[in-house]
C-alpha cells in the first residue's frame, strides 16, 4: 500500500462541522448555480456527516416540491426513489457474478499445479473426470483424461522421479501465480493488496481514500485474488470479496447523482455492498447483513438494513445460478449433521473457544509485530521478493503433507464432513464391525484405524505450519483474506479434539459422563461438528465477531440445532481474546496504518476537559481566524498559503473574538478563484465580508466580495469545561470533523478529530503521533 500523508493541522483537520448548510443552493451571490467541486472533499480527509445529511434532506425536499408541478417531475421523483434499489440490484448481480467466476477460476488453477485435463485444458480435475465414461465410483479421483505432470512428461505415475517432478511443478506453478499477482498489484493497483476490510471500515467511518474503490482496483483485485488463492498461500478470498463488492458499489453509485454527489449516501451503498460481499463469500445472506452491521459499518440506518438484505439476496441468488461448485450449494464446505449434541459436550466446545481466543491473541500480536517490522525496516522495500520467498517456503513445506497440499477450502470441507459409508478420506478410516446393519446416515462410533492415527499426526503438523505461516502471509502486498486460514486452524484443532472425544466415549462408555448419552453401538460424537465449532472459535478470536459469526456458521451448515455450541465457542473466544486486548485484527491494522478511525466500541473513561485537548495550547501561536468584514482577498490568500488548515473560524473582530461561523478552506479557494474569473472589480485588496450588508468603505475602494453563503452559521460548539467523555461521544455519534470551543460566546480554540484520536492514544499510554495516517 502506498504511503500517503494525511494533511493535518493543529487548527482544523476536517471539514465544516455539524451545522449543515441551510443555504445549500447557490454558494455565491454573483452566481446562479453552485460552482464545480463545491461540497467535495480532498483525498485523505474526513467527511462531515451532518452536512452531507442536510444536503440530502435539501435535495429531497426540492424533488418533492417539484414533483407536484408536472407529470415529468413526478416520474423523476419516482426514479429518484427507486434508484437505491436499482443500485442494490446491480451490485448484487455483479458481486455474485464475480464471486462465481473467481470460484471457477480458482478451482481450475489450483488443480493446474498438479496436472492437466487432456480433453480440455480449462477443466478442473473434478470436471475432467465428470466427462469421462471410464471413471468408476471407487476410483472417482482417477480417470485417463486427467494426467499428472509426471504422467504427461515422464509417462510415470509412481516412483521417486515422478514424485520429484510433481513436487517441482507444484512449486513452479505456485511461484508463477504469486509473482504475477504481486507484479500486477505493484504496477497497476497498489490499493488491491491486503484484505481491504480495515480500509473499508475506515472509509465507511467517513474517511476519503480516492482510488481505493476504483475500477482498476476492482479489476486487479479480482484477477490477483484468483492467482494468490491458486498459489496455495495461507490466505482466503472471503475478506477481499468484501473489498471487491464495495468496489462494485462505488462504481454503480457513481452512475447516480444522488450517491455520487453525496459522500454520506455513498457510504450507505457501500455498507450494503459489504453485506453482498460476505453473502457470496460464505453463501450467507443474513450473516452478510449482520456482518456489515456488526463489523464494518459506522452509520447504518434502517433503510440501509433493508437494502443490504436485498443486495445480499440478489448476490446469493446470482451465485447460486452460476453454481460454481456443481453441488447446488453456495460454498464448498456445506455440511449436514444427523446426530444431536449433548450437554456434556459443552465442555470441549468451551475449550475450543479458549483455544480460539488464545490463537486470536497470538496471531494478532505476532502479525502486527511483523507488519510493523515490514513498515520500519528495509524489508518493506522488497515486496516482490518477500512474496516469492514466502510462497516458496509455503509450497516446499506444504506439498509432502496432503492436508496442506490441497486448497484450504477443500481442507475445511474435509474436516467438517461427517464420516458416511461412502467417505474415502483417511479421517474416516475406522475399523468396521462386520455384523453392522444400520442405515447409512447413522453409523455408530467405531474404533479408529491406522488411517485416522496417520491423519492425526499429519493434522497436528499441518496445524503448526498453518499457525506460523499465516502470521507472515497476512499483510503482504497481495490480496489476502484471513477468514479461511483462521477457520482452517480452528477446524484442524476441532477435528482432533472431536476424534479424541469420540474415541474416549467409545472405549470408556461406562464412565459417568458418557453413561447417560453414549451407549455401545450408538452414534454419539460427530468430530465434524467439533471442527465447525473450532473454526468459529478461531475466526471469532481473530476478528472478535460474535452474532454475525454464529449466523454465518449456521447458514454454512444448515443446522439450527448447533447454534448453542457455536454461541458458546464464539462468546468464550471473544472473552479470552478480550482479556489480552480489546483490538481485533482489523482494528489493530487500522491503528498500525494510522487511519483516523474512532471506534464506537472503545470506551473513554478519563476525566479530562475540552480545554485540555483544544488547540492552541499555551506557548503555541494564536488560532488562525477570519474576521467578518475587515480582511482583504490578499490577506485570506496569504493565510491559506501559509497554513495547511482545512478551515477557519470566522469572528466579529480580533479584539472581541465572538464567533460568527466557520469557513472551509477548499470552498474559500474555489469562491475566490471563481469570483476573480466571473465577477468584475474583484482584486487583491477587495474587502471580503461574511455579513448580510457590506461594510462602509471609502468611495474609491474596489468592489467588495460577499461570501456569506459559504459560511457555516451553525458550527458545532462546546464550552471549555465540557468533559472529554462527552466530546468523544459527540464526535463518534455525529461524525464531526471538528468542533469549536467557546466561553460565553468568545472563541477559545478548536478540537479536531485528529486531536481527539491523539488524546485517546495519550490516555492509553500510546505514542500520540503513531496513530496518525502516514
From TrEMBL:
Its main location: membrane. Keywords: Antiport, ATP-binding, CBS domain, Chloride, Endosome, Ion transport, Membrane, Nucleotide-binding, Repeat, Transmembrane, Transmembrane helix, Transport. It is found in: Endosome membrane; Membrane. CDD domains: CBS_pair_voltage-gated_CLC_euk_bac, ClC_3_like. The chain crosses the membrane at residues 82-106, 167-189, 209-229, 241-257, 269-293, 342-362, 382-399, 455-475, 482-501, 529-554. The keyword Signal does not apply. One of its GO terms (cellular component) is synaptic vesicle. It holds the Pfam family CBS. SUPFAM superfamilies: CBS-domain pair (SSF54631), Clc chloride channel (SSF81340). PROSITE patterns: CBS (PS51371). It is a multi-pass membrane protein. GO terms for molecular function: antiporter activity; ATP binding; voltage-gated chloride channel activity. It comes from the Eukaryota. Residues 614-680, 711-769 form the CBS domain. Belongs to the chloride channel (TC 2.A.49) family. PANTHER family: CHLORIDE CHANNEL PROTEIN (PTHR45711), H(+)_CL(-) EXCHANGE TRANSPORTER 4 (PTHR45711:SF2). This is Chloride channel protein. It comes from Mesocricetus auratus (Golden hamster).
